[in-house]
């Protein structure tokens, strides 16, 4: 299997019929990483990969439309038919562990640790997951938030997470074979389609996601001159 991206969902700020919130699956022949876990994406993930056999989960920030499915994932791993041999490595921003603990309060002391081996991200965080190298960059979203650069062999995928325009976003996109960029288009901490296009000039291929409710996919495509990712689509990262 080549290096591939599968789109699990792109909706914001809540899931729509046929479209969960933000979530993506990165895969090679030997490695599978769930990138963002928005509501509805756990169900879609199961169409493509067993959740208990993931090599890692990577979360860009703690807003619910990017992280809420960590809660049903916890119950799937510990109390159902999907029980991993060891806690799943979970990479996320500072504060993610505390949020999980508060949601799961009353279960056991430090309950999330039974399901997840949690690692806090920081700017320029590097880690090797199987045959994929993950580099996280701090971006501008009004709370701790990160974009991702994932490399397999000589092939690179970049993902904005949620962010306004910033130097780190340009750095993420530069030289990437596929750049997945949000185009919510509302507020100071998101990208417009034009912002995505500007950052995407450094990449070989731009793909839009997380289209805001004030935009349609046709308008976003026209303004950015780039296609919009759709749930269920897979892309080879060349």
UniProtKB/TrEMBL annotation:
Q: Which domain of life is it from?
A: Bacteria
Q: Which GO terms describe its molecular function?
A: 3'-tRNA processing endoribonuclease activity
Stretches assigned to the Metallo-beta-lactamase domain = 20-210
Return the Gene3D superfamilies for the record: Ribonuclease Z/Hydroxyacylglutathione hydrolase-like
Which stretches are annotated as coiled coil?
Answer: none
Q: Which PANTHER family match?
A: METALLO-HYDROLASE YHFI-RELATED, ZINC PHOSPHODIESTERASE ELAC PROTEIN 1
Spell out the protein name for this chain: Ribonuclease BN (tRNA processing enzyme)
**Provenance organism:** Saccharothrix carnea
The top of its lineage is:
Bacteria, Bacillati, Actinomycetota, Actinomycetes, Pseudonocardiales
